[in-house]
């Protein structure tokens, strides 16, 4: 996965996603924010919360090394499906391609719902399986299973690991967990080319695709807010009656 994001299409996708994350989290306020996975992207760099962490599993710790190689960027070593936070303690959770590379993505979402405060937000990005990139990936996997060397594993365009989750499937999961989708968008409409020169030749498709076939972008971006339905206390159905006094009331007269 790390090697793919270092390629020309990987850098093209990361640039688009970085702009989307910066725009989405810039005006989100709170105290605690966590990014789970993908050290190649800083999804919290535009956010101003005082406590921001990057959390990675132990096997990906080497991917978070700083450019000079002196110290890791990672602040937490944890599994996304078992977060070391109490319930309702985080204001923002960022999941860049975390769900599709998780063994149990639905459990990861349940864990995110647990640690988010009411009205907290989760920001998710993922590969779109119904895009040109996704279709080429599906073709490569089918040919690989059939043993066709010409279109085998080497023809895979996206990272080999991971099970890509459809946009509408993700929205259903979020709705079942009590999230409300606040914003979603698609991006990266250029064909599945491997070189920078060819990707630049089709740069005009980013504008055309966003206008004419928006749901077929190679990657989707979703912002959802955790809704907690409050209880309304109902009073008794009857009206209280005034208590009547049985004792006589003495009246004072001037005369």
UniProtKB/TrEMBL annotation:
<keyword id="KW-0489">Methyltransferase</keyword>
<dbReference type="InterPro" id="IPR013216">
    <property type="entry name" value="Methyltransf_11"/>
</dbReference>
<dbReference type="InterPro" id="IPR029063">
    <property type="entry name" value="SAM-dependent_MTases_sf"/>
</dbReference>
<feature type="domain" description="Methyltransferase type 11">
    <location>
        <begin position="76"/>
        <end position="124"/>
    </location>
</feature>
<keyword id="KW-0808">Transferase</keyword>
<dbReference type="GO" id="GO:0008168">
    <property type="term" value="F:methyltransferase activity"/>
</dbReference>
<dbReference type="Pfam" id="PF08241">
    <property type="entry name" value="Methyltransf_11"/>
</dbReference>
<dbReference type="GO" id="GO:0032259">
    <property type="term" value="P:methylation"/>
</dbReference>
<protein>
    <submittedName>
        <fullName>SAM-dependent methyltransferase</fullName>
    </submittedName>
</protein>
């Amino acid at each position: 996965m790390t090697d793919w994001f270092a390629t020309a299409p990987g850098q093209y996708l990361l640039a688009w996603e970085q702009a989307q994350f910066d725009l989405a989290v810039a005006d989100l306020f709170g105290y605690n924010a966590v990014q789970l996975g993908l050290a190649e992207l800083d999804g919290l760099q535009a956010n101003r919360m005082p406590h921001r962490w990057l959390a990675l599993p132990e096997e990906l710790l080497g991917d978070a090394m700083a450019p000079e190689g002196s110290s890791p960027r990672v602040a937490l070593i944890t599994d996304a499906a078992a977060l070391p936070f109490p319930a309702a303690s985080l204001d923002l959770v960022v999941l860049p391609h975390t769900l599709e590379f998780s063994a149990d993505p639905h459990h990861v979402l349940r864990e995110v719902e647990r640690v988010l405060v009411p009205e907290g937000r989760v920001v998710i990005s993922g590969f779109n399986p119904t895009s040109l990139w996704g279709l080429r990936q599906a073709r490569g996997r089918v040919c690989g299973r059939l043993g066709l060397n010409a279109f085998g594993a080497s023809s895979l365009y996206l990272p080999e690991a991971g099970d890509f989750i459809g946009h509408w499937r993700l929205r259903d999961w979020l709705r079942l967990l009590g999230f409300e989708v606040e914003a979603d968008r698609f991006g990266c409409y250029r064909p599945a080319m491997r070189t920078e020169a060819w990707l630049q030749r089709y740069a005009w498709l980013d504008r055309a695709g966003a206008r004419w076939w928006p749901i077929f972008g190679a990657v989707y971006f979703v912002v959802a807010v955790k809704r907690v339905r409050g209880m309304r206390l109902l009073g008794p159905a009857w009206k209280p009656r005034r208590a009547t006094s049985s004792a006589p009331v003495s009246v004072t007269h001037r005369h």
